[in-house]
């Protein structure tokens, strides 16, 4: 298990994978995928009455002959969908080297698989200096990315440019912060035909070790808490964690998305075949 | 700020482990976590901010330290400003002469009492001190509730020269003055007598020691003509010397060029007492002294010139021969009586019907009585007058209040202005031949002598009341060793026994000096030092118990501060957890 960005592992996995695009119409540039907007493809989408300014070529003359009304054929547009990868740049993502590497690798894998799939990948990183890169620059950006933001993802989203319409949005974070999770999910899903919340968690996030007193320091705010890590305290943590996960999962579903929890302790291959299978489907353009 | 229980400040020692625990906890290893909120109970409202969290530990430490300080202040019974705790200690010092006795080390009992009192004030941490002196009349030496330094300074200048007395009235007074504090310390030179009920808050401390002593127990001087007769009574208390040398030093009188000094050896064998009578010619004040011993004060006496003041008695014209003879016979044997003196104060005795001070005789039809005679009991003119066996012939009733009656006849009467009438016909009576006659006339002379302005007696010992006579309508001042004070009342006035020996002068506003009297520091009971001892009888009712009982008197604000600090700490730590 690599502690750094394992580009080789990503390179090995990307050719055999494809992003699970949503079945509904997409938005984006003209391409191969039906869009939610009307356009000039051969797929008939609807009929409606002519309005001044409409393209006369789209009139259904047969219908005009039958009804003496100007009936316009509304055809569905064909777009080339985009994939947006939002990577949480807060300090908690670097709780351990493995957690940081796992987050980078997942973001890179999504970009690589999307690019191979013909989806224009865009990487949005919410570090102290928010970045928005596209295409092949995503790899370079992920190499140099620092998890240095002192605020959580919800706050950091305010520093990003407004979200654009896209086909798929993949948000990589640990989602371990106090916020209105439903509002966060709704905001992240805005303009996306489909989105996934990929939650990267460290082993200490999932099952913290106890046995002694410690001064717990929040990785982002620096707030401290004296605590004796007894069994009761750890059990209380587990209860609160489960409740948080339940709320997060519900918020994702409410926004027509999915929460995928990726333990950083697992290898990238195991994650793709296991927890992240709903996002990365087999059958890419190998 | 003062502390009722300074030991309570030891609770401040809890700050040491508190601060130590704070720094030890500060050194706990920091563990960085992704989300702190999962470690604590979720709160319905937003956090105050990370800055507050950062200082939670410090705020908690400060609040806990504040709680410790508040607890210490409460335990120490802190008082601020006017509510500062005043611990009142009442010191009672025996004011009797025996307190001036020297111990084997040469230190007087009074000096030991001063040291012990100062130590007691320091030990009790008294902030207010009252010093009382026992005596026939209790008196305040310092206070009430004086500054300790002032009270002890007053005690330094206090001299114990009083007569033997009962200290209980002073102790009861001290108990009242001590009120809730219940701290009374009594310093004396003898242990309490068996069965004596001491007031509960009084701690009885006896600092005396049994000593032998030779003392003057009485000293009298009488001047007649140019001769001064000094009568001394010397007593030995304990197995002391069998003889003692009495030194008498007569200062020169107005008619003498130089004084005289005599030393008389007095044997004290047998009962241990001896009487010495000496005469001096043209002597001024006479100083009597015994060799210094455990109580030197009772071996010294200064006897001022005490000329006799004979009472001038005059017999008025017109008196019958029988009456005159009977009166002459009495006056001839009566001491200190001058016949037909030039003094303005004359006891005039005359026949019935005159305005003499005393009338003797009967008028009208005489009746003879052999009894029963009825006398006004307790009247000074009738002291020891026994009329049994007397045949009394009386005439018409005289005016005034009846003093002796027989049937409906008034034999002796007294008018409001003091005139006395003896309704007696001596030609048919035997009154002048029985003892009742000189006794009755002696009482008349005595009362006339008592009515003279000035002191009744000029030489007194400790504990004797100061009796004097003042004239109506005049203002008098008594000047003594302790200062001067006005004398209220007219006629025979009996003042309380003086607290200190010395010369007392009676002054009248329109005349410089009326009379003087000498109070000698002599008291046989005080000179007997054989029963003096040291003892320490603790108080039955401790002031500390009272203080504990009055715990509700403690200031409440430290307790409130303690509770607020604990609540604040609970709030802060609850937020942090």
What would you note in describing this structure?
The complex is a heterodimer of chains A (286) and B (577). Chain A is an alpha/beta fold. Chain A folds into two domains: 7-27 and 81-282, 3-Layer(aba) Sandwich (Rossmann fold); 32-79, no CATH class. Chain A has nine helices and eleven strands. Chain A has helices spanning 7-13, 61-67, 97-116, 137-144, 153-156, 181-189, 203-206, 231-254, 268-273, and strands spanning 17-19, 28-49, 71-87, 120-125, 131-134, 166-173, 192-201, 213-218, 224-228, 257-263, 280-282. In chain A, the strands form three sheets. In chain A, strands 2, 3, 4, 5, 6, 7 and 10 form a seven-stranded mixed β-sheet that branches. A two-stranded antiparallel ribbon of chain A has the order 1-11. In chain A, strands 8-9 form a two-stranded antiparallel ribbon. In chain A, β8 and β9 form a beta hairpin. In chain A, α1 (7-13) runs parallel beside α3 (97-116), α3 runs antiparallel to α4 and α6 (181-189) runs parallel beside α8 (231-254). The radius of gyration of chain A is 23 Å and the shape is elongated. Chain A starts with 6 loop residues before the first helix and ends with a strand. The radius of gyration of chain B is 39 Å and the shape is elongated. Chain B has eleven helices and 34 strands. In chain B, the strands form eight sheets. Chain B has an eight-stranded mixed β-sheet with strand order 17-16-18-19-25-24-23-21, with helices on one face. Chain B has a six-stranded mixed β-sheet with strand order 6-5-4-7-8-34, with helices on both faces. Chain B is α+β, with helices and mostly antiparallel strands and 577 residues long. Helices cover 23% and strands 32% of the residues of chain B. In chain B, β24 and β25 (420-422) form a beta hairpin. At the A-B interface, β8, β9 and α8 of A face β2 and α2 of B.
